[in-house]
Amino acid sequence: MDFPRAEAVARRFQAVAATGSTNADLRANAPDAASWPHLSVLVTDNQTAGRGRLDRIWVAPPGSSLAVSVLLRELPDDLTARGWIPLIAGAAMSDAVAAQLPGHEVSVKWPNDVLVDERKICGILAEAAGAAVIVGSGVNTRMTADQLPVPTATSFAVEGAAVDQDRLLADYLTGLRTSLAALVETGDAVGSGVHDAVTARCATIGRRVRVSLPGERLLEGIATGLDIDGRLLVAADGVDHAISAGDVVHVRLA
Hints:
Blueprint: H1 4-9, E1 12-15, H2 22-29, E2 40-44, E3 50-51, E4 57-58, E5 65-72, H3 85-98, E6 106-109, E7 113-116, E8 119-129, E9 132-140, H4 165-186, H5 194-201, E10 208-213, E11 217-226, E12 232-236, E13 239-243, E14 247-250
Parallel strand pairs: 1-2
Antiparallel strand pairs: 2-5, 3-4, 5-9, 6-7, 7-8, 8-9, 10-11, 10-14, 11-12, 12-13
């Protein structure tokens, strides 16, 4: 795999033929800041032990998807502002996907599942690694319809597009780098423009949603927006609930 444009964006870029988990590999290397600086990238098209949100297993046939993990060290001082990082990554990836799928509706289901015409093409998982953050993404690139894990998923191939993987990663990394730098400089999601950029891509806002919360609680209502900390605001029973973590389902009205 050759990624000249993506390599030009990253401070360190490594493509491997196969690995268990790109996030786990970066976590193991995270203590070595000299060799693995900010915006170090690890990518493969054959990840054998990937993980998604809520510890879900994420496995794809070799060559059918890209697993890419990015090590971030230049972070906002405010720990609360760091909650925007996975949302920034989702918006950056949606921009990168949209650039190669003209005519399709590309959006983000809060917090960071990238959708094409309401079907998932990419999932993102952000994890703390000491003082750093690792953002892992799994993008369905050449996956066939028979290989899709669920009927609500899609891929570039299923959408009839021959994806330029180098351009996809370069666009994603550029967007992630730019938005994160703006957030670090201002320390404020609103003033940096991050809040507006994420909101513009978020398909969840304005939808009726069902949220599975910790403790097996369930909340159903209308998603009205994002607060200044990136939490999803859900209006239910006359109360605005700020959701920081939970499994969100878009409810289709009959």
